[in-house]
Here is the input.
Amino acid sequence: MRFRTHIINIPLLHRIIRSLAALARLCVIRLSEDKVHFIVPGNENKDGVQVWSQVKVETLFSNFRVESNNKNEIWLELHLDALLKVLKSADSSINDGITDSRNATSLQDGEVSLKLNKRGNQAIWAFDIRGRSQLSGKPMQITHEINVHVLSPKRQGELNEPLCPPPDIHLVLPNLTDLRNLVSRLGTMADDVKLSANHEGKMELTVRSKNVDLTTTWDKLHIPTQNTDSEEEEEPVPADKMFSAVVPIRAMQKFLTSHLVGGVAIACICEKHCLIAYVYIGEISEAGGVLTFFIPAKTFGDDDD
Amino acid sequence: MSQDEYMSQMKASQAGATQILVAQTDDVRPFARLLRGIGLKHNAVMVISNEGFEITVEEVKTLSAIAYIPTNLFQTFTYAPPDDDAPAFEISLDSLLQCLNIFGNAGSAGSGSALNNMGGKKQRRWAGEGEGGGDDDTSFSSGRGGGRERRTGMRMTWAGHGEPLSMFLQDDGKGPVTTCELSTYQPEEMMAQAFDIDNRAVYVIMKSELFRDALLDLPPSSTKITLTATPPRVALPDHLANATSSSNLRRAHKADVGNLGIKAQGDFGETQLDYPNEKSVMETFDVETEVQFSYHYAHFAMLSRALQQSVKIALQIEHTGYLCLQIMMPITKDLGTGVHMGILEFKMNALEEDEE
Here is the structure.
């Protein structure tokens, strides 16, 4: 079992890991020859939010080598906090050399490499940050090691992407930062939010409490065209029919930490079942990667319209 | 759908019920600011009249706060008095403020964190606050909001007794729209007594800034505030005659012109601030005999929030010690005499002697 690579986009990796760290302590990373998957299983937080994401190797890495007797795949589990600390350090050391010359810790021509190693019986990820000191120009090297746990094929088999019915609707979400700010304000009013949308591109967020009913409505959101396998074409739904799912506001906030990743996001509603959000890394067309959040819907006693 | 379409749709949907009230503004901030000033409790009683809103919050028998919100804070204010009782209902002040701030343009942000500590060790959570958490990771969020100032517009309607208070909110007439319905409740009876001008012992008008600075200078560990109003030209009491000469001079001067003293006492000592009746300080100073009354520091601490962005205060005290503080908001447009942009009024009883 071997793994080593250069990390070419530390800031992006840092943001991805920050988003994940907002919703879980542990994360499974599945390394394969062309993709890296970041997985947060549902048992990691009490709202049952899961993340199944995949990022193309070339979006984050170069000189990427992974070898194993399991289809050249390696599955690891690690503490997000530990990884986050390393990435923070690496991010400030690399800093692209362009900006922030005041940053004394920043190195010139910085490079970060990552290797799977062993220390005794403990598997570790060893990060090497190399560069030249800004002041003296002398070569510098910083090494970080974090413990990782290699998953057995049995554990791998137990991790399954949640099964969802075909979504009732897809639509492109408004700016995630705006949405995050609004949802965090809703969080002071109620525990749950109802997300509804129709095929006219209308989306509503509704909260209800003893004192107030509040609905925020967006219009003309983009509905992505689907490459439908339309053999089993059912009768078309009316464009103004609203589909909805009630989710904990806390779960929405967790998913919305992904505004850090900064891409376009598409939401799918499987009515009364779940909300799925795809947050794209880079341009959708480039398909650099996507973070997929599954947020299970709550069943709402008094709200069954 | 444009705002106009929404508006007309809203109107259409409400066509069945005639509105008792329609109030519209393109910037909710002045309205929200006044409401936040009285945000001492979760709920408030709202009274609607031709003059605008009168919104009252009461801490049973100890403190009452009223926001007088005039119609000129709104571009449109139409009020059709119902045949029966004058409209009065209780609403959640917290929720009202949260709704007004739904797009983040009516919050208390940037109002100086020092003020938020005025509540002392209790760290009171003010109505309408609660952005807590989630907003800390600005380092990545690429300078969102920087110079661009957005304003939230509002249209408020009320259809009569038993109906919710409805609001329609949108930023600059574009982007997402928010509609809210606030539950209205039968109002609690208000207990605060009226201030009796005929029994007035102190009447002082001064700049808000000076009074606010005074409140900020008082240590948050204080428990009691004592106000001493000294009329002009009172002879120096005999027992002070042997004090040092410089302090005698100062005292003599204050005694000459009159003085308002604010003393804060607490477990860690006391602080005394003096406001002499000088032109630069007092606009009006009407005190006939020296009076001294004490109040809860906690009540005074609540005033500092209300004082933000205000221009003037009028402080009146009855001979019983019953205090009435009126806080005036700046007048931003030419409105003629007798018109104001909102007044906050606080009334509180003095501490009994043995309450110390």
